[in-house]
Design brief:
6 helices, 60% helix, two-stranded antiparallel sheet
Length: 118
């Protein structure tokens, strides 16, 4: 996607385009399209308006958030002893990487006597 924006010469528009892709803008746009379509095809237009309105309503409900959290953000299973030994074997062969993410550095961590990641 970034290469497409660079090829089109609009990489500076990325924050604006990203903001326009987030809810509720696409759902409001769907409702506007539905009102325009309702002039010619009444049933389809009202269906689009109803889909946009229900999408906005669902995106603000806590129940929808909990359902998505339960089904999309599943907690990975705990490592078994067999998997740990397998990872240790892979670490010896150089095929495993350990990535530590930190939000900053403590200049002096008293418990360690040196600097530490926060």
């Amino acid at each position: 996607m970034n290469t497409l924006l660079v090829l089109l010469g609009i990489e500076s528009w990325k924050p604006t385009l990203s903001a326009l892709m987030l809810p509720p803008v696409p759902l409001l746009l769907l409702m506007l399209i539905g009102t325009r379509v309702a002039f010619n095809r009444r049933g389809l237009g009202w269906l689009l308006v109803l889909l946009g309105a229900s999408g906005i309503w669902l995106s603000t409900c806590m129940g929808t958030a909990r359902t998505l959290e339960r089904h999309v953000l599943q907690v990975p299973p705990a490592l078994t002893a067999q998997r740990i030994t397998q990872l240790k074997g892979e670490a010896r062969s150089g095929t495993t990487a350990i990535v530590v993410l930190g939000g900053g550095v403590q200049a002096l961590a008293p418990e360690y006597g040196t600097s530490n990641l926060t």
